[in-house]
């Protein structure tokens, strides 16, 4: 048995790789997506820098303490953390070749994503109705730009995930659809990390100060 | 002997479904615990602002590690880990931009 393994190992090499890495063209696309994530990090880095510099510039208008609703952002955080986990479960189902589980987890993740965007939209609307609009102060411009850019990313991720799910439903799990599932989930986990910094730097810091 | 080598070499195979989902559940629990600590520290005003910010930033850093290693399979790939280099560079640039902006702008205005 042990001898058989040593001789078979080189040939098993390709099959041992996860499905999304078995085709070199797909592997390169995954590498390219990691590089995109590194650049997207820079976009958020600039927006975080802007927010950190401008957050005290409220021009006599609403302060972070006035407009941040603890219950609202706690729910948003829990929903997004859970969706990152369910997205991970869809990658797992893809690797196990279980199409039904894969589609189920993708749909759960999409539903959680929609819930998150819904809560965020209602938060923005209630802020605006209380006079905390984007034009009111430098703090609010920076706040809506940073959190809104993240929300836009999540919305794009939802559409992307729906398209991926349709493709998996139609064509099944092959190296191409596997790569697409893997990449859309990389994006989703990345957005979860960005949200962790948003609730740390924006919401919790705003409530404390 | 042969069974132990089997276990080692089959680490990536689909036969280890249970082990794999355990990794995701652990990652989820870790991210929930780290988040709960951050929220608890901030909302109970347990610490002074400056040390609290440092602790919360470290906790957020741990969340990056959890997502990368438990969910994003950052250690896997085809060939050399070029994606890790891109990520490390991206992280350095990102933190440099954010922290140095705060530092420089702090000289001229009322950045807290």
Sequence stretches where pLDDT stays below 50 over 5 or more residues of chain B? 1-19
- How many structural units, i.e. domains of chain B? 2
Count, helices of chain B: 4
Beta-strand content estimate of chain B: under 5%
Largest sheet of chain B: none
Helix/strand order of chain A: HHHHHHH
Described by the principal axes of the CA atoms, the overall outline of chain A is: elongated
Secondary structure tally, helices of chain A: 7
The residue fraction in helices of chain B comes out at over 70%
Distance between the termini of chain B: 62 Å
Output the CATH homologous superfamily of chain A. Answer: Cytochrome c oxidase, subunit III, four-helix bundle
Mean pLDDT of chain B: 81
Low-confidence stretches of chain A: 1-12
Distance between the termini of chain A: 64 Å
Description:
Chain A starts with a helix and ends with a helix. Residues 1-12 of chain A have low confidence and may be disordered. Chain A has helices at 2-16, 24-54, 64-67, 70-95, 99-129, 138-171, 175-208. Chain A is elongated, with a radius of gyration of 21 Å. Chain A has a single domain (34-208), classed as Cytochrome c oxidase, subunit III, four-helix bundle (Four Helix Bundle (Hemerythrin (Met), subunit A), Up-down Bundle). By secondary structure, chain A is mostly helical. Chain B has two domains: 16-76; 78-112. Chain B has 112 residues and is mostly helical. Chains A and B meet through helix 1, helix 2, helix 4 and helix 7 of A and helix 1, helix 2, helix 3 and helix 4 of B.
